[in-house]
Design brief:
single chain; mainly beta; Beta-galactosidase, Chain A, domain 5; 5-stranded antiparallel β-sheet
């Protein structure tokens, strides 16, 4: 059970390792609060890294595909970069078609987070902090954010988010690791053979620009029904308008019975290795992204990844909530605290 600072990288900043006696370990960089590696066992006890990463550390400075990062101030999209809030409108940078995505090009994913306390013991942890000033990327109010990464004995990687604002603003934080439970060294095999279950009876259909229409559409008799286990690739190529819009899965699923408690909302598994991953969260939604646009991204050892070399399960509030008062709210009042917890757990195969 250890936590240690591995040094400072000119592109990544400080790098910290959390490790368990079993060999399960993760490395986290100050740049973007990135999870740059996560080693877990297969059924034969062999460790492999299950998160995608760049082969060239310089790519983390802009991180165009958001490998491993903390996302903010607002995970996912806000239509037209238009933020209506408190009777005013704020203009946010456009970086995804005609929309604002993941906090814009200078979002939390490119920031150098401050490395705070590091605790050893049975469940080593690391605290990262970041101060986003008033007007940062157009958002109102100063936002003070604290994220604690803990490697639990289960083992699981727990991500606990806290934030406070100086004035009314919106907050929707998430973690953007791409997983491949077969091992993420490039060229990683496609994740289409991973089996997936999501506790969701409804998903959010979008327009062609990936902005939700406002409908909560039943998953029944659609390719979005993961209430029972299916492989990610089983229906990804069927003739479906929503899959065409996203070039695969890039949609928010509505968590059934959301009550803000921490509970399991998704499970992924890889038959050949025996690895499983449980996703627990306090959030009302989870964005399934099947890595549809990864082709050519330089991965580990400098070898390009192929499309669908990794998948994301981004726990979050719904995209474009500021334009949808019927969605769970993302406003944060001064004096209030934003709190979110997500765990990625890896039960023994």
């Amino acid at each position: 059970m250890s936590v240690r600072r591995l040094g400072t990288n000119p592109h990544l900043g400080d790098i910290v390792e959390l490790a368990l006696p079993t060999g399960v370990c993760t490395r986290i960089a100050a740049r973007g609060g990135c999870v740059i590696s996560l080693m877990v066992h297969d059924r034969n006890g062999k460790l492999a890294d299950v998160v995608l990463a760049y082969g060239d550390d310089a790519d983390y400075v802009t991180n165009p595909v958001f490998f491993g990062t903390l996302i903010g101030r607002y995970g996912n999209r806000i239509a037209r970069g238009d933020l209506p809030l408190g009777g005013k409108r704020y203009a946010l940078p456009i970086n995804n078609g005609s929309n604002h995505l993941h906090g814009g090009p200078g979002g939390f994913h490119t920031a150098l987070w401050r490395v705070g306390s590091m605790q050893g013991g049975a469940e080593p942890s690391l605290v990262l902090t970041h101060a986003s000033p008033d007007g940062d990327a157009g958002y109102p109010g100063t936002l003070e954010v604290e994220v604690t990464y803990t490697l639990t004995a289960e083992p699981a990687l727990r991500v606990e988010y806290r934030a406070r604002a100086s004035q009314l603003t919106v907050v929707n934080l998430t973690q953007h690791s791409y997983f491949n439970l077969g091992g993420a060294v490039a060229p990683a095999a496609s994740i289409e053979n991973h089996r997936l279950r999501i506790a969701s009876s409804h998903f959010l259909p979008t327009d062609a620009g990936a902005i939700p229409t406002g409908e909560l559409r039943p998953v029944d008799r659609t390719p979005f029904d993961f209430r029972n286990e299916h492989t990610i690739g089983e229906r990804i190529g069927v003739a479906d308008e929503q899959l065409r819009f996203g070039n695969g899965y890039d949609h928010c699923f509505v968590v059934d019975g959301w009550d803000k408690s921490l509970r399991t909302i998704a499970e992924a598994s890889h038959i050949d290795s025996g690895r499983r991953m449980l996703v627990r969260t306090t959030e009302p939604g989870v964005q399934l992204y099947s890595g549809n646009y990864l082709a050519g991204t330089r991965g580990k050892a400098g070898v390009p990844y192929q499309a669908r070399a990794g998948f994301c399960l981004e726990t979050q509030h719904f995209p474009d909530s500021p334009h949808r008062p019927e969605f769970p709210g993302t406003e944060l009042l001064p004096g209030s605290q934003y709190l979110q917890i997500t765990e990625y757990a890896f039960p023994a195969p």
